[in-house]
Structures are given as structure tokens and as C-alpha cells.
Amino acid sequence: MLPMRKNCILFLCLCISVQTTVAQVLGGKNVFSFLDLPVSPQISALGGVNVSSQQHDIALSALNPALLRETMHQHLQVNYTGYFSDVKYAHCLFGYHLDRLNTTLAGSVQYIDYGSVTQTDAAGNIQGTFRPRDMAWQLTASRRYLERWHYGISLQFIQSAYQQYKANGLAVHFGLTYQDTSRHWQAGLVARNMGAQFRTYTAGNQEPLPFDLQVGVSKKLNKIPLELSATLHHIYQFDIRYADPDFQEGGIITDGDTLAIGNTTDKIFRHFVLAAQWEIGKYVQLTASYNHLRRQELGLSQQKGLSGFSGGVGVITRKLQIRYARSWYQRSEALNQLGLNVPLKEWSF
């Protein structure tokens, strides 16, 4: 057990040392930012970030490859998202367990359609239309080590095309979990979006991927069917506030950006995503979460409303799982998602 843990720690340290040399403050300074979009209703309902949930939803392997388990053998899931400004995207994945190798695999594809966009020249003359798109193909492998450890890795090929501007790259995600089934808790650690951009939109302009290092824990309560989760993201960087170019009185100008002065508690709490999942009876699950970073950066200062909150409902049966989620980014803007999971092994064809 010790050799594996040492190797994992060394691997993560190497990844952090490489990625932090190019990591930037949040706010659109990375390429392929769509990789951080929640691909399924359950992920959205959990606040978009969770590395330790004990619910057997194959889509959670998109957040942490170590959450891909043997019980997800032949699970087929399709998710659809109605995003903002008529942008739509879909995600499909399938899991398969290899008994001989004691390894569980999953393959997925994500497609984002931005609709038809009018093309104009510098003077505003219409020259036609084009359809920008983003796509990502992912292969995940996960294994168990001893009784309580799981580890997994994902390779993701990314492709983007905006008219004549095209780019591609490769991302790697590595995750670990430790689960104590007797005490009903699980901890997780994941390093996401390690890799590089191969083809750039413009020559000589290579940009970093949206790297993140996350850690979290989930605990099922003993006397009520409730699971609580706490996840920290961007733990390698203390201040993750957006560098607002709109100068505010009392701000600090640093490297051309303006940073609003904030207290330490707010800076710390922006790393947290809190979630709760409640099982009602045998077939219904309710999920709710709070993302403080999303609320602080996207909510209107005087009218935050439900900004940063998310909720979802799932109907879970042996042969079918249907989930719906709604996430509030601003008071009047919410994201809706619908997902369908079919355990094919439970059907007789």
C-alpha cells in the first residue's frame, strides 16, 4: 500500500509543479474552458464540482475517474443541456468492466453547438453564417487497490472550430478515492485538465488548459438517508477572485488588472462547494448545493437571488434512471439539464 501511495503523491506533485507555472487567476485566461461545464444533471445539482460522492452515477467519473466503479458495467447515459443564449450541448458515455483485467472502462463524447452565427467583415457587411463547435472525446480507466482505495485516469482529446480558427489538445485527469463503507464516508482527490494545446487558434499563441486540483469528502448519515459533501477546488492557489478590469474605488491594480479588496473568509470560502443528497423512499433522490464562487462572481451585487444554488431530482429504478437539474447562475438566468441512464445489463434483449 505504501509504494502505491508514494507513487501517487509524487505523480501529483509533479503535475502541480508543471501546471502551476502556467495556471492563471480564474476569468477566461485558459483555452478550452468548456471542459469545466457540468455534463450531467447530477453534476450540476452537486454544484458542478464533487470528487467524493458515493452515489452510483456513471457521469460522476467525468469529475473524478476514480468514481468509475464495477457496478457501472454496461451503463449507458445520455445528457442534454439547454445553456444560455440558445447554446445547447450533449454528453453521452458508456461503461464496461473487464473481469480479466479487474478494470472498469468508460468512453464518452461531449458536443457543444453554439448555433448559427452571422459572419461579417470589419465594416459590418454580412458575408454569410457559420456554426462554431467544441467537442471532446474521453476514455477513462479505473481500478480498485486493496479494499478501500480506487484510482483512475482519463485521457481526453479536445477539438474546437470557430470558422477558420481551429485548435485541438490533450487533457489528462487523475483521481484517487478512499472509501470506508463501515462508517459511510469517502474522500477524493483529483488533478484535472493536465495537458497541452497542440494546434492553436493562431500561430505561436499557445494557451494553458483550465487546470484544477480538487479534494473533497462525502458522508452518509447513519439515522437518516442523507449524504453531505464538501469539496474544495483550486487548492493550489489562495486568491481565485476574478481580476476585474472595471476599476473600483479601493481596488489594487496589479499587472494591468484591478482586484477588489476582500476579506480572508470570503477568499477561503470561494474554494468550497457544499452539497446534500436526500433519498426519499426507494426511488426518488433530491440534491441541493451551493457554490460560493459562482454566487460572488456572477450574482448581481444587490440582487443575488438564488445565484450559486443548484437543485436536482432523480427517479432511480433498477432498469432506468431519469434526472433533472436546475442551476442558478444569476437571479434571472438558470441552467436546465436532463439526463437518462440505462443499465443495459438489467434489460433482456
From TrEMBL:
Which stretches are transmembrane?
A: none
- Whether rRNA-binding counts among this entry's keywords is no
Residues spanning the signal sequence: 1-23
Keyword entries, A-Z: Signal
Q: By what name is this protein known?
A: Type IX secretion system protein PorQ
- Which species? Chitinophaga tropicalis
Lineage of producing organism: Bacteria, Pseudomonadati, Bacteroidota, Chitinophagia, Chitinophagales
